[in-house]
Amino acid sequence: MRPLYPHLILLLLLGAVLSGCTEPYALQTNAFESALVVEATLTNEVKNQQIKITRTYRLETGAPTAETGAEVNVTDSEGNNYPFLETDGVYISTHPFQAVSGRTYRLNIVTREGKTYTSTSESLTPVNPMQQVTASVQEKDGQRGASIDVSAFDASGDSKYYRYEYVETYKVIAPEWDDERTILAPPVPGEPQGILIVPREGESKTCYGTQTSNDIIQTTTVGQNEDRVNFQVRFISNKNYIISHRYSILVRQYVQNLAAYTFYKTLKKISGNGSLLSQTQPGFFFGNMRCEDNPAEKVIGFFEVASVSSQRIFFNYADLFPGENLPPYIADCKIREFKNCFDSFDPDCKGAALISVIGSNDLLYVDSDGSQSYFFMVKPPCGDCTKIASNVRPDFWTD
């Protein structure tokens, strides 16, 4: 489960005074208050719902700590109880279920220390599926690129508040791939280190990379004549290598209520931009979780019950930018030449350097002359796509 607000854990409870610094400084937390952090969105999808519970962490530690050993359940207004069990630091419902209209839901947490936390009662937001996800060529901040846009319409006018997430997957083709590779031969006493050229095993030419949105993406139709959404969810520069061949994006649209929308909007405002050393330091703001044992205790997070819809689209670079050169690859794929000799009087001899880069895998084989007097090498991502992506083709992928 992807953290919805990773920066908040750092920002809300910092006790250090951070203004006035003009030189690099190893930041430390002078005062620290441990607080529960809850990330929970219950949806109308029939699935094993997930809840993530962590603790705030000191600035110098760099990562949140999972809240383990808690008893977690969701109850509804019909008397149903949905228990959750901990799996790899995430609490997952023991059975698939969905939020339905006409009921209210409450999140209940009892930590291993015996402290009880509950949410306010929340109901499912209006169900308003996306109409369409499209890709088109647009310009943003002076840069041409692919604009991923969402459209939706609620004739009743009840939706109004929207949040988006996406997962993008893209094909990577290693531009200097070769079906052979080099390995070092078994050493022979008194002889220079030998090099063997052997067949490459496994898929390493075509891979698939995946990235998940890491920002809070929202829009609202408040103030418009109708509840109609036409919104840019993602913009990708035409210089970005991820759209070089084939690209897919899965967009998820959550319909929020005003409280959830305001919580996320405030969260984005204090954690989405700027530096920890900015002039304005954030303060604490409450979500809809509280500690029953100590109502004054700070609890971070929001239990959201939201209707959700999703759509996936594919496009090729040539679909949007026909006849244009592909974006530059992620790595410098200049081919490097090595003369395979060890004559100390010949300044062109690079046998020792060649042995070193083969042994360390710092460079990969592209080609050689017939006598193996010269080898041609490139940086690993240029000859082996598994250095930057997965060679497992996703089940949903179509060409």
Description:
The chain is mainly beta and 399 residues long. The protein has 5 helices and 23 strands. The chain has a 15-stranded mixed beta sheet that branches. Strands 10-11-17 form a 3-stranded antiparallel beta sheet, with no helix packed on it. Strand 1 (36-43) and strand 2 form a beta hairpin. The two termini are 28 Å apart.
Distance between the first and last residues' Cα: 28 Å
Quaternary structure: single chain
Please outline the major beta sheet.
Answer: 15 strands, mixed
Shape: elongated
What Rg do the Cα atoms give?
Answer: 27 Å
Helix and strand composition category: mainly beta
The average pLDDT score comes to 89
| Unreliable residue runs | 6-30, 273-282
**How much strand content do the residues show?**
35-45%
Topology pattern, helix = H, strand = E = HEEEEEEEEEEEEEEEEEEHEEHEHEEH
Please count the helical segments.
Answer: 5
- Total strands: the figure is 23
Proportion of helical residues: under 10%
Topology:
Blueprint lengths: L5 H6 L24 E8 L6 E6 L9 E2 L4 E6 L4 E7 L2 E4 L10 E7 L5 E4 L2 E2 L8 E9 L2 E12 L6 E13 L6 E5 L10 E5 L6 E7 L4 E4 L6 E11 L8 E11 L1 H14 L17 E3 L7 E18 H4 L15 E4 L11 H10 L3 E5 L5 E5 L1 H4 L16
Parallel strand pairs: 1-20
Antiparallel strand pairs: 1-2, 2-3, 2-6, 4-5, 4-7, 5-6, 7-8, 7-9, 8-19, 10-11, 11-17, 12-15, 12-16, 12-18, 13-14, 18-20, 21-23, 22-23
